[in-house]
Amino acid sequence: MKALCWYGKHQVRVEEVPDPRVLNPRDAIIRVTRTAVCGSDLHLYDGFIPTMEPGDILGHEFMGVVEEVGGEVKKLKPGDRVVVPFAIACGHCFYCQRELWSLCDNSNPNAWLAEKFYGHAGAGLFGYSHMMGGYAGGQAQYARVPFADVGPVKVPEALTDEQVLFLSDIFPTGYMAAENCNIQPGDTVAIWGCGPVGQFAIRSAYLLGADRVIAIDRFSERLELARAGRAEVINYAEVDDLVEMLKQLTGGRGPDACIDAVGMEAHGTSIGFLYDELKNRMMLETDRPNVFRQAIQACRKGGTVSIPGVYGGLLDKIPLGAAFAKGLTLKMGQTHMQRYMRPLLERIQRGEIDPAFLITHRYSLEDAPQAYDTFRDKEDRCIKVVLDPWTRAKAA
Amino acid sequence: MENRTAEILYHRRGPQERGANVPLGSLANWLSALGGGGLALYGLRRRSLPGAALAATGGYLAYYGVLGLTGREQHMPWPVEIQRAFTINRPVEDCYRYWRDLENLPSFMRHLESVRVLDQRQSHWVARGPLGLRVEWDAEITSEAENERLAWRSLAGSMIENRGEVSFRAAPAGRGTEVQVRLEYRPPAGKPGRALAMFLGEEPEQQVREDLRHFKQIMEAGEIPTIQGQPSGRRGARGNLLQLLFHEQEKARRAG
Fold first, then answer.
1. Residues in chain B closer than 8 A to A143 (CB atoms)
2. Which chain A residues contact residue B250 at CB under 8 A?
């Protein structure tokens, strides 16, 4: 089958590789019909993520049709159309039973490696580093899905692939980011980052009852899309003091909750960003937490900073003093996918939201290397890229 | 109330004793000293990163070989003792029952090829050691308390002397079972054997931890998560080296 394989910084190639097969009795094999490229794939593409191996198959946002199931799979059968969550969960450990699905104890075959970095290991992820399990991903024609009774969600025929694909990651991620804000009536939520996760966070914040959403970015097409989601937008490149502006926009209080939907590869115009960029290049800092700092500074006293991420390593010069003095709540983590997929599918079915609004570019899987460049450089007003593993290349 | 925090999870080395198999020890020490020295020279001559790794390994082996030959090995800590604990989201009875049927042990102790129960107390164990060597020994159960504790030891004359103890205790507030394992063993071929084993990714502490993790995965999830046998692009030399580093080739070898 064809699959997109990682070979180093800025090197991905579509290769012919063996088809996946059932390895454990709870596996299912999916024929992938649509798959997307995620902002966190760009961290892999930009070489930020350790424990990758040349030849790794990427992709954690995918859906398709069940082709084959292992002997212990009870809820799926060949022919079922499903969306697959990016995090893998067993369903029976302490964490799964408490709906902390992305913290599953039993789905990471390289748990020992994550424990070396983090002390404890969370769930295995598709198409990511070996610290996260090293599972082959879904930017391919077929994918092997472990614990198939726990993760994949069946989707109705009436909805197209494009309408449900984002249940695999970014819609639940944006929604959980908003839910973590503990939104109360009258609240203003400030969201840094109008990429795909930020766009879903904007709409989710309103679904959860926010009074106002203020969205921050610098790309006009992303700000426009945020406005289409009823957010008030700020282009931070045109603002001297973003934190002060947020204060003035909220009657001097500051936003009640701040969402950092940018993560480790933040950009900015402030001295904080320059500091991170320089330290990155000298390999003295693993992440660029420019946005995280701003979110802490801007948040009102007693408010919440919600971090869908992604951060990976050790962050410099974090104003924890400000966070402490203001009594902030920090909520973060990988999305607990299995908690959100079905409720959000119901919202789509009821017509409350059509996630396909986000898609700006459609490529064949064979053109994925170009797709990655377009997405990373935000060329051609690119916001979200969807790949079809079964069409031929169009690019010259 | 038993003190849960003391002694848990500290890797302690037992009192030093000379190994029983003196002649084998000498031969291993000679091989280690000479072979390690040769490997070091070879590695240094290659003038590359892999060469440096070989040189470092060779140096390590040579060092311990020389220590053994000069009799200074008797000052090294000996035997190896490991303790590890895991909490399993199943009742104590289920965990004990699965472990007590010793023939289940290879399902989560991946270095074991088979355990054959001979009678109420005796059993025959077959293991795969480093470099694919097969090691066999007989063992007996020395004490057992149903749903609480099980202890066993290898019989005299075994290739690898070892003894172990596993205890089961209910975790607080219905969180399942706290399983604690303590293992002591004398590695074959003394310190050099252990050094080589560590380099090849068979570090004993890690092995015990992974065995317990596999036990938890079987009891909770019904299976051990794996990526062995999944597709990938061509790995190349660097990819294969990383597979070795992440112990993924080891597992492939054991599973195959």
1. none
2. none
